[in-house]
Amino acid sequence: MSESRLNLLSFSGKTRILHMTWFAFFLTFYVWFNHAPLMASIRDVFGLSDQQVKMLLILNVALTIPARIIIGMLVDAFGPRRIYSSLLFISSFLCFGFAFANSFEQLAIMRFLLGFVGAGFVIGIRMISEWFPARQVGVAEGIYGGWGNFGSAAAALSLPTIALLLGGDNGWRYAIAMTGVLTLLYSVVYFFSVSDTPKGSTYFKPKKNGGMEVTSKGDFFLYLVMNIPLYAALAVLAWKLGPANLKLLSVGVTDMIYAVLLGIYAFQTVRIYQINRHVFTEEVPEIDRYKFKQVAILDLAYLVTFGSELAVVSMLPLFFKDTFELSLVAAGMLASGYAFMNLVARPGGGLISDRFGRKRTLLVLLSGLAVGYFLMGQIDSSWPLLLAVAITMVCSFFVQSGEGAVFAMVPLVKRRLTGQVAGMAGAYGNVGAVSFLTVLSFVSPQIFFTVIACAALVTLGAVALFLDEPAGHMAEVLPDGTVQMIEVT
Fold it and tell me: Which residues touch 435 (CB under 8 Å, ≥6 apart)?
């Protein structure tokens, strides 16, 4: 096998790690979005209002925001094998809790907690970057992300049929519980089947834990600014649950949540200062420097790519069902076309990025994404169904290729911080999902798609103006003090 090509039919060495890890990610998405294709059944059984349905969709992606930040830190500190296995194990029991909930309140709590499983993506990014060289990392990360993301399409394709086969009002419960059983079993398989690095390789860890290292005063303040949307998205969620909207939280509880979020942000700011106070008194050595603006731009790019995918995957089965008066199974199968493109689009985005440059690839793919969502914003019941599905799949190609291009670049920012960079970018994907789903709760689906297109145009401008193409090498300091140069092109 040449260094520039992957033999995906192999099940040894780094390719084995890739297959084991993308399947772990596949299961996290299978569990995370097991509710979407069954939402019509859940709505009927519990007599949910439209606002309650939309709230479940928002809750599903909310906890993933802090979870991805925390998991990013944990994976850098303890390694992906232990953290991925633990996440799969815990998430299986949360899945059982949702499957056998008996009220909207229980559904809401368990759906919120299941957002934890969405942090699994971050873990595999670090694992793949440890096993694959720079000239292959884009396509390898794309395969990991794309084939794993297909878990949501697999849920849409399989779970309605499984629920029907199991029969009765509880068919949806057994179908969802089945996804938890698979996740529980694989948590054990993964733990005993992989290692964090190839034999003889060094696993670089952050010098300090509790926040990301930055290397200049300007980067310090940019880091603080970029943390604000992570908390703002959770504040929006509390507002949606509060007395002004769904009235599930009292005024006092809502205000307490705001205060807690403000307190956590203040605590994190202090911790970030403790980790990075040296940038105010001394110049960081050249060997340790990186530009945090690279992280910030990748955060925004993932907000409009993966953030829009999460939002659209959550609402698309119901959108097709209501717009074209389809059956639950038919709507799920057609909506799966959006996520189906992950199989080729996300690896394709990584491959294009490897071959033609990181920045240029992002510019092209974000442009296509914006056009695609503008077209989806025109879909209504007068459209031929096949044309609506075709436009949806074309749009999804640019969305998921864009995700692949973003994470082709994430491991090239700073090796020892890869988990944290991936965690922050991943969290911004969920900020996008919460933001877009909140917009959806106030407007029609057509306006919802158009808002995403406008956000993509803003991000396109930021990439064009501020993103730098990665340099040829990055340097990391080994535990014994020697320097290792790592190729990034």
Answer: 233, 236, 303, 307
**Distance in angstroms (rounded) separating the CA atoms of residues 313 and 300:** 19
Q: How many distinct structural domains can be found in the chain?
A: 1
* CA 26 from centre of chain: 12
Pair 351, 132: CB distance under 8 Å: no
**Tens digits of residue pLDDT in 261-278:** 999 899 999 999 999 999
CA distances from 296 to 18, 114, 256, 344, 396 (A): 27, 27, 30, 27, 23
Rounded distance between C-alpha atoms, residue 478 and residue 379, angstroms: 55
The amino acid occupying position 476 is E
Q: Write down the pTM of the prediction.
A: 0.82
| Residue 2 within a domain | no
Domain that holds residue 387: 13-487
34 inside domain: yes
> pLDDT band at 2, cuts 50/70/90?
very low
Structure tokens at 478: 């080994």
Contact 439, 308 (CB under 8 A): no
Please write the tens of the pLDDT for every residue from 375-409.
999 999 999 999 999 999 999 999 999 998 998 89
Q: Are 465 and 372 contacting, i.e. CB atoms less than 8 angstroms apart? A: no
Is residue 335 situated within a structural domain? yes
CATH code (residue 43): 1.20.1250.20
Spatial CB neighbours of 394, under 8 Å, sequence gap ≥ 6 = 372, 375
The answer to whether residue 199 sits within a structural domain is yes
Q: Please give the average per-residue pLDDT across 69-89, as a whole number.
A: 92
pLDDT digits (tens, 9 = 90+) for 133-187: 877 888 888 889 888 878 887 888 899 889 988 877 788 999 999 999 999 999 9
Beta bridge partners of 484: 476
CA distance 231 to 229: 5
Residues 232, 237, 238, 242, CA torsion sign: positive
Which is it for the CA torsion 10, 338, 173, 102, positive or negative?
positive
Q: Tens digit of pLDDT for each residue in 185-209?
A: 999 999 999 999 898 787 777 777 7
Angle at 82 between CA 59 and CA 12, to 5 degrees: 110
